[in-house]
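Sequence, please.
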């Protein structure tokens, strides 16, 4: 991990969708025990959480969420969206977000992967979104800029978002997973890439890290499908959020990296049972991707909050007539910016 980054500049956010976190926490103990953890219990989860001792953590439950944002607003943090409450109340510069069905992975040599250290390395070394380097990330050990790479672009730009990958269960949609039920990702590729500017990607919140001070408000819960469930296949909120944050990063001249670090992801849910619920999202992407590809923000949008507000306005103008859920998403984006500003530094610890 970068020597310039201190452990107390990092929060690890975990959304708890299951009650027993014992095995999850113990598997991560050697890595997580160095940092402050924010665990956000899914407000719809009725059982009490089981968390082993020996960690520096704050746990937020439904009463804490209601107290911070109000009962009328707290509903947006149900299911996988509970992680966003952790982003909201953190006061650290860097956030690492890991789902509770993910465990530490091992590299090709059988060595345990320190996902936090790799994410911080990604965030604290420049990104190169304006010209593609064919030898992966030129700032990693053993790599550099290839012949023909303009020297004027070699200083790169600030990296604001690091998107890690995972072994075992790949992030397929329900139709693909249903057609390939036994397929697993076993390839550990020792590489990090900068995603080129003006290129979208379906960012997943399963294993990411970001500079909260720079792009925090752009990672937001807003688009929710009708009848959305509790399984990854049935959710679209992080994909929408990911495209929003990528548009913001492109506009502000910030970088996004993908690749290492890996985590090991366990199976959860039934792809066949989720097919009907997710089909709405599969169709939706045919509208959403061209929209985000066309979005251009004004010069007046100089902060992340400004950018999110402008994207929300364009969503309302161009997509509202296609489906009411887009109007709800636009309003949720505007409300999120207001919430981000209002919660500010006034948030107290859980139970206060």
């Amino acid at each position: 991990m970068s020597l310039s980054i201190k452990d107390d500049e990092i929060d690890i956010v975990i959304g708890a969708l299951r009650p027993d976190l014992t095995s999850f926490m113990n598997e991560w103990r050697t890595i997580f025990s160095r940092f402050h953890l924010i665990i956000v219990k899914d407000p719809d989860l009725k059982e009490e959480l089981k968390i082993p001792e020996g960690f520096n953590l704050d746990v937020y439950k439904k009463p804490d969420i209601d107290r911070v944002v109000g009962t009328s607003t707290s509903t947006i943090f149900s299911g996988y969206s509970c992680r966003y409450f952790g982003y909201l109340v953190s006061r650290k510069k860097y956030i690492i977000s890991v789902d509770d069905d993910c465990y530490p992975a091992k590299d090709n040599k059988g060595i345990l992967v320190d996902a936090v250290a790799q994410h911080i390395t990604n965030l604290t070394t420049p990104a190169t979104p304006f010209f593609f380097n064919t030898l992966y990330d030129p700032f990693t050990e053993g790599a550099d800029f290839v012949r023909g790479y303009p020297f004027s672009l070699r200083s790169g730009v600030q990296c604001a978002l690091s998107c890690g990958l995972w072994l075992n269960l790949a992030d397929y949609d329900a139709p693909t997973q249903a057609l390939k039920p036994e397929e697993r990702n076993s390839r550990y590729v020792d590489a990090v890439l900068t995603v080129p500017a003006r290129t979208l990607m379906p960012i997943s919140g399963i294993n990411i890290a970001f500079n909260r001070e720079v792009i925090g408000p752009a990672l937001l819960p807003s688009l929710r499908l009708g009848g959305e469930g509790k399984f990854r296949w049935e959710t679209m909120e992080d994909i929408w959020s990911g495209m929003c944050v990528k548009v913001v990063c492109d506009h502000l001249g910030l970088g996004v990296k993908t690749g290492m670090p890996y985590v090991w992801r366990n199976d959860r849910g039934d792809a066949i049972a989720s097919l009907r619920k997710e089909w709405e999202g599969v169709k939706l992407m045919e509208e959403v991707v061209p929209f985000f590809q066309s979005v251009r923000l004004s010069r007046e949008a100089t902060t992340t909050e400004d950018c999110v507000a402008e994207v929300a306005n364009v969503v309302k103008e161009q997509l509202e007539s296609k489906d009411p859920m887009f109007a709800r998403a636009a309003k949720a984006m505007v409300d999120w910016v207001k919430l981000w500003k209002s919660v500010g530094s006034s948030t107290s610890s859980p139970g206060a």
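The two ends are 33 Å apart (CA to CA).
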